[in-house]
Amino acid sequence: MKQLMMNAAGLILGLGMLVPNVRADSVVLTQNAYSYSVGGEFNAVTSPGNFLPNYSPLAVVGDGFETFCVQTTVDFYPGSTYTYTLSSSDSLGRDLTQGAAFLYDEFGRGVLPNYDYVDAAARNADAGALQSALWWFQGGQTYGGFPSPTNNVYYQFAINTLGLANADSANDGRFGVDILQMWDGNCNTAQNQLVLVSDNGATLLLLGASVSALAVIRPRRKACRVENF
């Protein structure tokens, strides 16, 4: 019995040592020449997770990968540090769609047709059009000043490739893309972003295992409220 109790104590201690690692996952977002005030490309630097090997050099700027937001009603502060979790849905409960995942996967691998990765001015315009298509697939969201899906080359590319029904349905791991659910120090949600993962299914499996393990020793993060800044 004594040995059993010692083993159990060792297991709990080991799980306790995992908490700082899980909670330490952080991301800092900055704007660049391809950003708008509320959308377009943002540069993401994550720690300790390293997603850079999943990206083409065309989608990497400095030490970070280029990402796009999936929400129009939530904000983030450039340069601030946020904790993040990987998820197949955003912090408002909307599933990542195949259309959005497909387009971002193409972008991140540097093969998105008609996207100018070289000329800064052209890339800025393309980033706005791609952002519009991503928002539209993520719940029909729009924002003033961004082009509508009508005649949007990226929206039409996804529809023509996947079909409308598939493009609007949940990704469910079909493309190796997840959502970075971002949280500030007070557990308020920040504007969620997209990320390429090397093995989406394995990533979500490991994430689920980590959350289950943490539930043994502390309440799950359900206590965090989802609200805008």
How do the helices and strands line up, and which of them pair or pack?
Elements: H1 2-23, E1 26-35, E2 40-47, E3 60-61, E4 64-67, E5 81-87, H2 98-108, H3 120-137, H4 153-162, H5 164-168, E6 177-183, E7 189-196, H6 200-215
Would you give an account of this structure?
- This protein has one domain.
- Helices cover 36% and strands 20% of the residues.
- It has 6 helices and 7 strands.
- It has a 7-stranded antiparallel sheet with strand order 3-4-2-1-5-6-7.
- A hairpin with a 5-residue loop joins β6 and β7 (189-196).
List keywords for this structure.
single chain, seven-stranded antiparallel β-sheet, 229 residues, alpha+beta, disordered C terminus
Shape: globular
Strand order of the largest sheet: 3-4-2-1-5-6-7
Mean pLDDT: 81
Distance between the termini: 52 Å
Strand percentage lies at: 15-25%
Overall helicity: 25-40%
The quaternary structure here is: single chain
Which radius of gyration do the C-alpha atoms yield? 19 Å
Unreliable spans: 8-23, 199-229
What order do the SSEs take from the amino end to the carboxyl end, as H and E?
Answer: HEEEEEHHHHEEH
Largest β-sheet summary = 7 strands, antiparallel
What's the domain count? 1
Put simply, the count of helices is 6
Q: How many β-strand stretches?
A: 7
Give the structural class.
Answer: alpha+beta
